[in-house]
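The passage that follows is intended for readers who have already worked through the single-chain material. We present the inputs for a multi-component assembly, then the predicted structure in tokenized form, and finally a short commentary. You are encouraged to pause after the input and sketch how you expect the pieces to fit together before reading on.
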Amino acid sequence: MKYISTRGQAPTLNFEEVLLTGLASDGGLYVPERLPTFTRDEIAEMASLNYPQLAERIIAPFVADSIPADDLRQLIHDTYAVFRHNAVAPLTQIAHNQFVLELFHGPTLAFKDFALQLLGRLLDYVLERRHQKVVIMGATSGDTGSAAIEGCKRCKNIDIFILHPHQRVSEVQRRQMTTVVGDNIHNLALEGNFDDCQAMVKASFNQRGFLPEDRALVAVNSINWARIMAQIVYYFYAGLALGAPGRPVAFSVPTGNFGDIFAGYLARQMGLPVAQLIIATNRNDVLHRVMTSGSYGRQTLEHSLSPSMDITVSSNFERLLFDLYDRDGAAVAALMRDFDQGDIHFSEQAMQRARELFSSHRVSDEETCAQIAATWRDCEYLLDPHSAIGVKAALASGLDRQVPVVTLATAHPAKFPQAIQRAEIGVEPPLPLHLADLFDRSERFEVLPNDLSAVQSFMANNLGA
Ligand SMILES: *Cc1c(COP(=O)(O)O)cnc(C)c1O
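Having made your guess, compare it with the prediction:
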């Protein structure tokens, strides 16, 4: 399998190279040159596979030239063995033809574990073979940081530095990062806001000279191809549970960076019958505006009750654009240049194509709380605010009632107690058992000034892997 850039000017890479690369050198994102596809019969045969077996079947063609089948099996087995539900991604019914796919049974209680648990293991495996060590650097306002740290905590060849804005992440989220112990784990609390953290990461990727020459800097943000790949699996898993390939299914996806829902699009391109993909956004609605107006513009960030979807630029949307524009890298590069100057306007043909499969819905904080309360009242099922946005969008989608709709439940409600309180249903979600003592564990983090050289010298002096 070869990977090409959405802007058409970067070298073609194999899986191992793509794993270690973030942005392509032309500023684009890597996508498979040709997607593997499964026939109806092949999909029908997958119905008997459990989650890790299915993951192996779906992922194998993407990594075949880089990872032998037996090693892949072991890596996938180890990855999903840490999830605390036997089904890994269990499906729950909440109303007639309305289902919730619970993606929060991993170590940090959010769907990002599906990709980052695998990514950590894939990286360590490849690095071991290459006798190489790397440094991961990332900024987080919450979920990504803890999932990345959990994914890398047993990696012998990786130092991970995660920057969070000091005193500006929730206590649950901070503790999920800072209570993980390991010489290779470094939590940096920056005296600044999230944008300062991101700027610092960006600047460091642009001038890597502060690290020893043999330590490459690797990104694990949501543009990393391996993360998208891992997320394709659960679309197949849910579809098969509801009768695929005999019966099409729709998915409603709480969306920020467009990574998760893009994986659903790929599942469909690979042969899974998908009736519709619903883009569910909070008031940071850049994607909803794209779908309704055909133009993509920058907005100012607004804080919502669903913080993991608070974004203004949806990076992975470029991967869809590449297909909407017939995989014409020059056309995508031209559009993205426009974006640097102001708004992008998409062609009518591209928008028509997008609307054949995607619909969108924006959900306010008030509607989010109302949905949490309504679902609780209807079936005593507790949604987290992100998942509630998905369910609200699913119910509002106007889809034919014969089509089952699966909402991806991207986080456990205990991660977002404020939203649950605001819903005024009189319950407080307890943390699952493995995190019940989270508030008693000791924390380790370094408070650093908002100063690039202070951060970089701390990193250079604290490599532990
Ligand atoms: C990251 C995240 C999202 C958004 O996922 P994207 O892939 O960025 O669209 C939604 N919900 C939760 C809980 C998340 O952590």
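Commentary: Residues 110, 112, 143, 222, 254-260, 308-309, 386, 410-411 surround pyridoxal-5'-phosphate (CB under 6 Å). Residues 84-109+226-422 form a domain with the Rossmann fold fold (CATH 3.40.50.1100). How closely did your sketch match?
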